[in-house]
UniProtKB/TrEMBL annotation:
Any one GO BP annotation for this protein: proteolysis
Protein name: Peptidase, S41 family
UniProt source species: Porphyromonas catoniae F0037
Domain Tail specific protease residues, every copy: 47-248
InterPro entries, A to Z: ClpP/crotonase-like_dom_sf, Tail-specific_protease
A molecular function GO annotation: serine-type peptidase activity
Pfam families given in the database record: Peptidase_S41
GO CC term, one of those recorded: outer membrane-bounded periplasmic space
Length: 284
């Protein structure tokens, strides 16, 4: 059997796991599984997002940020942060700088659509700026043996509050889609359920297992997930996290200059502020 044929067979076998963290690495190709997002419509348009950012947006590490102005939204007083990857650099200094320059805004839209992940530590770093006390976010269980159910007992995962730095304890809409994976899925887990945070969009792509790598006898490399992650209720999030409120991206509206997910988030925030005026309580 040729190397190419062996690679094809092994890649097909590994694809049965339906895991984007499973890869086969060879000198001539890299086996991967993309159907966690390719089977679903894309939830954003890059050029349209650039229109919402405008020409004068600021850059803080991996974050692009501005006060929303497009389509008459300046009066809504909503900050907008676009974070397309957790693989690029992001520090507490970057986050503090961005949030301090949006401090005059009454709410924030944090857009991570299409964010395929990166560093889990960055996910934790950012999420800590949106809480004022620690909370249980879920559980993790590690593979301990060759058996199908050989996993360690679940151990709790906690999000700890920021000790020093700027905290944003105002309303936030987190925009997600099927392209949100790995560390970005982890960030969604950390944010969902926070008092002032509403996750909007479509189900995330998942990818909750921590990847590890090994070398095969023929010298090829294989990467695979070595753990399972659960939310605080005990639900497995390997195949994604459901939003608090579903929003769909419309290609038709996008051609007219409207991102239906950003616009939906603005409408939602307007409605919640009107409700707050009446009840003096913030209700999602």
């Amino acid at each position: 059997m040729s190397s190419d044929s062996l690679f094809l067979i092994m890649t097909q076998l590994l694809s049965e796991l339906k895991d984007g963290h499973v890869n086969l690495a060879t000198p001539f190709d890299y086996g991967r599984y993309w159907r966690w997002k390719s089977d679903f419509p894309r939830g954003y348009d890059t050029e349209l997002i650039e229109d919402y950012l405008g020409d004068d947006y600021r850059i803080a590490g991996a974050m692009l940020y501005t006060r929303l102005q497009k389509n008459g939204h300046l009066a809504d007083s909503i900050g907008y942060i676009r974070l397309s990857s957790f693989a690029s650099g992001l520090s507490d200094g970057n986050i503090n700088a961005a949030l301090s320059r949006l401090v005059d805004c009454r709410a924030l839209i944090l857009d991570i659509r299409g964010n395929g992940g990166g560093q889990v530590t960055t996910s934790d770093l950012l999420a800590r700026h949106f809480i004022n006390k620690g909370r249980l976010i879920g559980y993790m269980s590690h593979k301990t043996g060759p058996g199908h159910n050989d996993f360690s007992p679940k151990h709790p995962l906690h999000l700890k509050p920021l000790e020093r730095g700027l905290k944003w304890l105002r309303p936030v809409v987190l925009l997600v889609d099927r392209g949100v994976y790995s560390a970005a899925n982890d960030f969604t887990l950390r944010m969902k359920g926070l008092p002032f945070v509403t996750v909007m969009g479509t189900q995330t792509g998942g990818g909750a297992g921590l990847p590890m790598s090994s070398e095969l006898p023929n010298g090829w490399g294989v990467r695979f997930s070595s753990s399972r992650t659960f939310d605080a209720s005990g639900a497995d999030i390997e195949f994604g996290i459901q939003p608090d409120k579903e929003l769909q991206f419309s290609q038709e509206k996008s051609r007219l200059g409207y991102d239906t997910m950003i616009e939906g988030a603005v409408i939602y925030l307007r409605d919640r502020f009107e409700n707050f005026k009446r009840t003096r309580r913030w209700e999602k």
